[in-house]
Amino acid sequence: MLDRLYPLFGPLLRRLEPERAHRLGLAALNGAYRLRVSSRKDSRPDERVSLMGLDFPSRVGVAAGLDKNGRYLDALSSLGFGFVEIGTVTPRAQPGQRPPRLFRLEDAGALINRMGFPNDGAAVVARRLARRPFAGVCGVNIGKNADTPLERAVDDYVACFRAVAPVADYVVVNVSSPNTPGLRRLQAAEALENVLAAVLIERDRFAGRDRRIPILVKVSPDLSTEELASLATLAVSLALDGIVATNTTLERPGIATSPCTSIEGGLSGRPLLPFSLRTIERLRVAAGQAMTIVGVGGIAEGGDAVAMMRAGADLVQLYTGLIYRGPALVDEVRRALAAVPASATRRAGQH
């Protein structure tokens, strides 16, 4: 039913200030789920895939940023997503940057955001996730607080992992957002190795008590071929479980005439797709076939998701396209991926 309703109320939401529309849209989705207007769309057996030791009902997930604090897991899952990634979560609660900090570029099917990781803090989010009825795959995207110096970033990532580990199915180390000053400098080999090695040590300590949690890193689409090769080599050497490609870009492709071109922040949506595809292709070559790659950035129709899978992705995530297309995009992407011949996707036969 929501597929039919969204073309009616979606344009009304987009008349509102973007952050307010985001809040109201999620609240409406949650209300529809609770009233059973939005019924859960179960996956078919041929959509299921096993990766990183986890069983995903389908390859299509929610990207981090849509549900920052883990409040809407069941409602989002009811749209047909196979997994939900929440966050970015930081050790301490923080408000993020001052509004306005989210801008629509409707003609381009894009957004610019400079949110700056607003969230309730790792401990609060972890308590909320511990009470969740949601039984699907839930990833948690973690970052450092804006006021934490880069030289102490490792402490933030370890503290955040420690807080969310008991309630996360996988954890993504976010070092690629352009909206926390200096954060992207952590993608440099030595700095990144320090962060990832510390998180992996903490993961191994936790695994001795409970279970092994897959660790992934989220990367920028603005890295050079050499930088991506270095990052992939490090990920392989550390036996990282996966790479999420990509975050938003500081470039402004395809929007040269937009009045929003000069706005600071990361660009997401349709113009990002070529950047994401290029990054995935380079990572697949550099990281080899064993590394799990999650493709995100610019999926606006089913064919975009297929292109990501053919570039080397194992899973895909949606965010900005969902804002513009609504729930119909989830079904479209699932159908498109299901129609791809097994030989065209790298892990289609792995279940």
Short summary:
The protein is an alpha/beta fold.
List the helices and strands and how they pair.
Layout: H1 2-13, H2 18-34, E1 49-51, E2 54-56, E3 60-62, H3 73-77, E4 83-89, E5 102-105, E6 110-113, H4 122-130, E7 137-142, H5 153-164, E8 170-174, H6 189-207, E9 215-219, H7 225-237, E10 242-245, E11 266-269, H8 273-287, E12 292-296, H9 302-311, E13 315-318, H10 320-325, H11 328-338
Parallel strand pairs: 3-4, 3-13, 4-7, 7-8, 8-9, 9-10, 10-12, 12-13
Antiparallel strand pairs: 1-2, 5-6, 6-11
Helix pairs in contact: 4-5, 5-6, 7-8, 8-9, 9-11
Would you write up a description of this structure?
By secondary structure, this protein is an alpha/beta fold. It has one domain (41-334): Aldolase class I (TIM Barrel, Alpha-Beta Barrel), CATH 3.20.20.70. Helices cover 37% and strands 16% of the residues. It has eleven helices and 13 strands. The strands form three sheets. An eight-stranded parallel beta barrel has the order 3-4-7-8-9-10-12-13, surrounded by five helices. Helix 7 links the parallel strand 9 (215-219) and strand 10 (242-245). Helix 5 (153-164) packs parallel to helix 6 (189-207). It is globular, with a radius of gyration of 19 Å. Residues 347-351 have low confidence and may be disordered.
